[in-house]
Amino acid sequence: MKPDVLGRVLGPGEPELTCEQCFEELDRYVELSVAGDPADARVPGMRAHLDGCPACAEDFASLRDLVTQEGD
């Protein structure tokens, strides 16, 4: 089994947000990330959730791309 598959099966080794919590914090997390602030420290559990949830990771990527395009 590949290491990334095993990691998904076992889950994160740290606290993780739920999809609902992720949705509530996603705007703030994106803003922090784009600004270069320590987003992972300010929104604990978000990175673990995004690493394990393809749907929320896609929402994050789309929103981040939208925000960075608006700044161009």
Itemize the secondary structure elements and their pairings.
Elements: H1 3-10, H2 19-35, H3 39-42, H4 46-52, H5 54-70
Features:
single chain, 72 residues, mainly alpha, 5 helices
Strand percentage, roughly? under 5%
Helix content: over 70%
Overall spatial form: globular
Give the strand tally: 0
Instruction: Count up the domains.
Output: 1
Quote the average pLDDT. 86
Number of helices: 5
N-to-C series of helices and strands: HHHHH
| Radius of gyration (Å) | 13 Å
Please summarize the sheet with the most strands: none
Amino-to-carboxy terminus distance: 42 Å
Structural class: mainly alpha
Poorly predicted regions: none
Description:
With 72 residues, the chain is an all-alpha fold. The protein has one domain. It has five helices and no strands. Helix 2 packs parallel to helix 5 and helix 4 packs across helix 5. The chain is globular and about 35 Å long. It starts with a helix and ends with a helix.
